Structures are given as structure tokens and as C-alpha cells.
Fold this sequence. Notes:
6-stranded mixed β-sheet; binds 5-O-phosphono-beta-D-ribofuranose; single chain; 48% helix; alpha/beta
Amino acid sequence: xxxxxxxxxxxxxxxxxxxxxxxxxxxxxxxxxxxxxxxxxxxxxxxxxxxxxxxxxxxxxxxxxxxxxxxxxxxxxxxxxxxxxxxxxxxxxxxxxxxxxxxxxxxxxxxxxxxxxxxxxxxxxxxxxxxxxxxxxxxxxxxxxxxxxxxxxxxxxxxxxxxxxxxxxxxxxxxxxxxxx
Length: 181
Ligand code: RP5
């Protein structure tokens, strides 16, 4: 876990964000941006279920003792990264299917979501929206033990609602001339 370290002085649980290739970073940056917005410590790595299977297993098995509370895994193609990590830890695992193949992520979605009974992977939507939701879900899990994170989540919900209200106000203004006529 050398790529980047964000340890929390108060000892808050960290989120592990890993992806199958550095080519996945453009999408997975959305998860990182969101974790930073919630002030959640994280570490990122590139590790592959297929290309570096032993290293992936080693990292997954060490998550708990290294202070992690949740793992977010992004992978494309026949995406087994989240499933392999889930096989080696009892921490909650979130999978982000990535649209890097000719099938635009449908292959990764099915590979990530269709886990056999006993080894769950909480699978989010394909691509950037999924990466953002993975980080929000991770925040909700970390928030179970952190009042500060729960407060940020509550604020986020309020801002989300306000942004939709703003969209509606702009829409009404746009169509108002037609109504006047
Ligand atoms: C998957 O293969 C990775 O998660 C990535 O989405 C895809 C392609 O990897 P590269 O060939 O770009 O390294 O395992």
C-alpha cells in the first residue's frame, strides 16, 4: 500500500481503494475525490486478481490489521478483483464495475455482482457514478463509528436536495415565457 497514504491522526478507520490497472484511475478518481470530500482517510493501490493474484490476496488478508474498515475495488473486463478481496477478508467489500472493455462494463458488472452465496460484494453502478456511490457507501459504513462523518453525510443530503431544487427553479424560469404566452 505504498501508492498514497492518508492516515488519520485520530485513528479513524481507513478505506482501501484498489483497482486492476492504472488505466482504471480516471474513473476511480471519482471515489477518491468523494472520500476526500467526506474527510475519510484512504490508501490506493493497483493490484490485479489475474495478473498479481498472490499480492492481491496478501493485501486483502492484511486490511483489518492495517486499520482499514472498508474496501472499494474497481476493475474492468472479467472483473474478479472485488470477489477475490472478499474471499480474503471479513470487512465489507464494494465493487465498482469499470467500462474498459469492448462490452463497456456489462462484463465487469456481471462478474462483480454475481458472487456466490457466502461471499458478498456490494456492487454499484458501472463507471464514474458507481465510483462516487462506492465512496458514499463506504462513508456510510465508516459513519457508523464516526459522528463527524455522519454529520458530513447529513450535510451532503441537504446539499443534494438543494441542488435538485435549484435545477427545478431554473427549469421553471426557462419555460415560464411559454406559459406567459
Ligand atoms: C482489468 O483489465 C483492469 O481493471 C482494467 O480495467 C482492464 C485493462 O487493464 P490494462 O490492460 O489497461 O492494464 O483487469
